[in-house]
TrEMBL record:
It comes from Polarella glacialis (Dinoflagellate). This is Uncharacterized protein. Residues 1-53, 200-219 are annotated as: Disordered. Residues 7-23 have a biased composition (Basic and acidic residues). Coiled coil: none annotated. It comes from the Eukaryota. Belongs to the asaB hydroxylase/desaturase family. GO terms for molecular function: oxidoreductase activity.
Length: 219
């Protein structure tokens, strides 16, 4: 999916009649799937309006980690043990888990990006077909031995890179996360991510590479 420019989003915005006013300050409230505004995937060329959860304007941001905003992961690799259930099924974050956050929901236009010719050189991302046989992602050994090489070959083919290493993945499933299922090996299955985020900063990316060169830790 692609995000329309801010001005275009304002012109094309057409939230449902019962939509809540935006922006909505959520503080440390984590949205349930229903409250997050699950919407059908649009057909090619169509757009939908859907709520996205961002950090508020007062939250420090930048390419380098500030140490003022973050999350504390548990031993299984997830934030699950820090959650409690709030009113109407909305999860409430414990302060032990997230710190320095101010969640704000904003309605945005979302357009189906398939068939629009996006490419890595001009757009920084590319949508490609990758037809593979079914993989049991709960089977960690099979995922690493079978799926990792497929992903590496795909990245090589699309970028021209000579060497590609896959080093980590998350398994996300709403139903399995609620049932507290784990992948073979003990890592927790995580639920859908309902906050717009980037996994790495200019600080954490090189640090992660250095961590991979050290013996495995608890998490």
């Amino acid at each position: 999916v692609t995000m329309a420019p801010a001005a275009e989003r304002e012109r094309s915005r057409s939230p449902p009649a019962d939509a809540k006013p935006e922006p909505k300050t959520l503080g440390t409230t984590w949205l349930s799937e229903k409250d997050a505004g699950s919407v059908p995937l649009p057909k090619p060329g169509e757009s939908v309006t859907a709520p996205f959860t961002y950090q508020g304007d007062e939250v420090p941001r930048g390419l380098l980690a500030s140490g003022k905003v973050g999350t504390k992961r548990d031993a299984s690799g997830a934030d699950g043990e820090f959650w409690s259930s709030g009113a109407e099924g909305v999860g409430i974050q414990s302060e032990r888990c997230y710190f320095g956050c101010d969640f704000v929901r904003r309605d945005c236009a979302v357009t189906n990006g398939r068939g629009k010719g996006f490419n890595l050189d001009d757009n920084g991302f590319q949508l490609v077909d990758h037809n593979i046989e079914h993989i049991d992602y709960v089977n960690n050994e099979k995922t690493v031995s079978d799926y990792y090489p497929m992903c590496c070959e795909l990245v090589k083919r699309m970028t021209g890179a000579e060497t590609v290493y896959a080093f980590d993945h998350n398994v996300r499933s709403k139903a399995k996360a609620e049932a507290k299922k784990k992948v073979d090996g003990g890592n927790a299955i995580q639920g859908p991510a309902f906050v717009v985020h980037n996994d790495y900063s200019s600080t954490s990316a090189p640090r992660r590479l250095r961590d991979l060169a050290t013996p495995p830790k608890l998490n």
